[in-house]
Amino acid sequence: xxxxxxxxxxxxxxxxxxxxxxxxxxxxxxxxxxxxxxxxxxxxxxxxxxxxxxxxxxxxxxxxxxxxxxxxxxxxxxxxxxxxxxxxxxxxxxxxxxxxxxxxxxxxxxxxxxxxxxxxxxxxxxxxxxxxxxxxxxxxxxxxxxxxxxxxxxxxxxxxxxxxxxxxxxxxxxxxxxxxxxxxxxxxxxxxxxxxxxxxxxxxxxxxxxxxxxxxxxxxxxxxxxxxxxxxxxxxxxxxxxxxxxxxxxxxxxxxxxxxxxxxxxxxxxxxxxxxxxxxxxxxxxxxxxxxxxxxxxxxxxxxxxxxxxxxxxxxxxxxxxxxxxxxxxxxxxxxxxxxxxxxxxxxxxxxxxxxxxxxxxxxxxxxxxxxxxxxxxxxxxxxxxxxxxxxxxxxxxxxxxxxxxxxxxxxxxxxxxxxxxxxxxxxxxxxxxxx
Length: 436
Ligand code: NAD
Description:
Blueprint: E1 2-6, H1 10-22, E2 25-29, H2 33-40, H3 51-60, E3 64-67, H4 70-74, E4 79-82, H5 98-110, E5 115-119, H6 127-138, E6 144-148, H7 158-163, E7 168-171, H8 175-189, E8 195-198, H9 200-231, H10 235-243, H11 264-277, H12 283-306, E9 315-319, H13 335-344, E10 348-352, H14 357-363, E11 367-370, H15 373-377, E12 382-385, H16 397-402, E13 408-411, H17 418-423, E14 428-430
Parallel strand pairs: 1-2, 1-4, 2-3, 4-5, 5-6, 7-8, 9-10, 9-12, 10-11, 12-13, 13-14
Helix pairs in contact: 1-3, 5-6, 9-11, 9-12, 11-12, 12-13
């Protein structure tokens, strides 16, 4: 199979590399010339565990290459994947389809033989039909079908998720396109996993429904955590207790500082917008968005309380600012609400993050970046554990506390326990949803 992958972000690059590892010939395209230059030098522009080795292996095998020349990549490809960004459009919550439609126009001009144009980006219902119209209008001779193939990989575990998916969803209009899609994913069939072939609209909606459901689940436990604090219950126990119920399941029940990332915030906003556009407001999703915002702001108040009412003049060490561990992605991370509140309140903020600095520097002005958590905590008034990187999961709490001006910790990921923190010498330990 010859595949062209348009867009080499988290999704496009991981998908392109993994497809080449299946044995397909993959050409990855990006209009960002710097990205392509780095990729051609064997450098991976994002942080994703394992991606560099897999990329190197497949480039060496001659199955994977990178170019800025979309037409050359599309020429002769049997499948052209669109994996460009679909950020929130300014002002109205809609998914911004500018990049998708621009890619479709370019693909239309470059199509030579029959190809399936596959949208991997997360897009609103109706987008694949729009892509079809754009291509047919731009190139009436083009012999092509469209397919929807939403991606469910998680940053930080992207390769594993791509190679061992819970399911693959494919939306098509005819058998011909279904066969091409089946051929692309055939190498995965050896492992037993469901491939769901459906219509375009259902495939498009599955992605948004999945993300909105997960956002609701995490927000539910975050809200219960707030109640736990009022009534003296422990949200970890509550989550365990409900998670044993097979209908609920134990995943995605870790209370924390609110969801962020490149997907949940924009996808819930886009889904809510789709509902409004169809005169069917999605009240649960809309509420989830609102509650999640409140959760992030509640964290700021929690930190202020821990600092006895004011950040002014305090030194605060923040451990972890990426939206989750094992990624350098800062998009919509809770740190983008919390850190500016600390800085704005007059705190001196020191930040440690194993991969976040390159992205984070421009987003978090006025902080000092440091390498070592103990050094960051030296003479500090508060340590905030914000992203649960492995590096912060087994800290020597005694050492941490010993170096601090006033040993206070806000553990917003519930990694430690009140007992261990107290024993290590922390005078104040606050967590999320753990008692009064
Ligand atoms: P990204 O912003 O990291 O990457 C998009 C890339 O596309 C950029 O490198 C950009 O330069 C390139 N691009 C844009 N227009 C182009 C064009 N016309 N030609 C060539 N290149 C072009 O985005 P991402 O995080 O990889 O997300 C891509 C899509 O996948 C989004 O719709 C997102 O919602 C969806 N998705 C993301 C994730 C995730 O974890 N990041 C998971 C599942 C689905």
